[in-house]
Specification:
It is built from twelve helices and nine strands. By secondary structure, the chain is of the alpha/beta class. The strands form two sheets. The chain has a seven-stranded mixed sheet with strand order 4-3-2-5-6-9-7, with helices on both faces. Strands 1-8 form a two-stranded antiparallel ribbon. α4 links the parallel β3 and β4. α2 crosses α3. It is elongated. The relative contact order is 0.10. Bound molecules: S-adenosylmethionine.
Length: 290
């Protein structure tokens, strides 16, 4: 069965009474060399377990099963489960789980299926939930060796943008604190069926074993980062003031100055280390007041 052949895909979908589900971001790969390259580059060696998100009709799954000792594929669409049984069900090293990846207890699932094996993530991600999935993986408490995902090119560009550049935003800061982002290669829209309106990029994230710049309160750091990018045209102090209404703006400005920055600085100029510093100053202030 040639799973990258458009006519074959059409036949598989029709014979199972399925339509491409836009709501689930179903754009299936129809380019062999892209499939092979993702599977080749998704782990630093062959002795890895692979967690795949969204196997679809099993195109990438098949390439992964040919290379790795254990593959666990999580697919939300119940209608695709019998299809996967037909296309890749004869691989003894494959387990398919019918679940929403965002609802799956990741730590428990990984230790149940992979035991002590080092694990990498590999996926052609649905565009509509790229960021929540990446953050869920990075915050799961699982020590993934590498996370290789195909995402919208524009999001990949944002993730790889340095502080101060136009693409730099809260997601850049949050992801970069948790891991190193490596751009692999671009994939044009024509490599998918149906073709999406945007191009894609394959990236790998090498998670840090501990997040860069530890902070006293993770929630505070998230709030500081979100506040800094909420209103890009405003100064950091103004932007933060609307997120922290309990603190006078003048006090926020003092805090920014005591962290070593100009009181009129904009949030996008700050790196993760700077946000961590501001976050701890705010946490200390909160503790002193309670
Ligand atoms: N891997 C296949 C390929 O490359 O041809 C399909 C990729 S398609 C872009 C995304 C897949 O993710 C679809 O099969 C979709 O049903 C599945 N999906 C969407 N949301 C999901 C979620 N929350 N959890 C698990 N799978 C999901």
């Amino acid at each position: 069965m040639n799973l990258t052949s458009p006519s074959e895909i059409k036949k598989i979908m029709e014979s199972n009474n399925l339509r491409f589900n836009k709501g689930f971001g179903q754009n299936f790969l129809i380019n062999d060399s892209v499939v092979e390259r993702i599977a080749d580059e998704c782990a630093p060696g062959t002795d890895f377990g692979i967690l795949e998100i969204g196997p679809g009709i099993g195109t990438l799954t098949k390439a992964l099963c040919e290379r790795f000792p254990k593959v666990v594929s999580v697919e939300i669409d119940r209608g695709l489960i019998p299809v996967l049984e037909q296309t890749v069900g004869d691989n003894d090293n494959l387990t398919v789980i019918n679940e929403d990846i965002l609802k799956l207890p990741l730590k428990q699932t990984v230790s149940e299926y992979f035991k002590d094996m080092p694990v990498c993530v590999c996926a052609n991600l649905p565009y509509y939930i790229t960021t929540p999935i990446i953050m869920a993986l990075l915050e799961s408490g699982v020590s993934f060796s590498m996370i290789t995902v195909m995402i919208q090119k524009e999001v990949a560009d944002r993730l790889a943008s340095p502080p101060g550049s136009a693409g730099y935003g809260s997601i850049t800061a949050s992801v970069n604190r948790r891991g190193e982002v490596i751009k692999r290669f671009n994939v044009p829209a024509g490599c998918f069926m149906p073709a999406p309106k945007v191009d894609s990029t394959v990236i790998s994230i090498i998670p840090h074993s501990i997040p860069a710049y530890s902070v006293k309160d993770e929630n505070m750091l998230t709030k500081v980062i979100n506040s800094a990018f909420a209103q890009r045209r405003k100064t950091l102090a103004n932007s933060m003031a609307s997120f922290f209404p309990e603190i006078d703006k003048s006090e926020i400005e003092e805090l920014i100055v005591s962290a070593g920055f100009d009181k009129n600085i904009r949030g996008e100029k700050l790196g993760v280390k700077d946000f961590a510093l501001l976050s701890d100053l705010l946490t200390e202030r909160k503790a002193a007041q309670s």
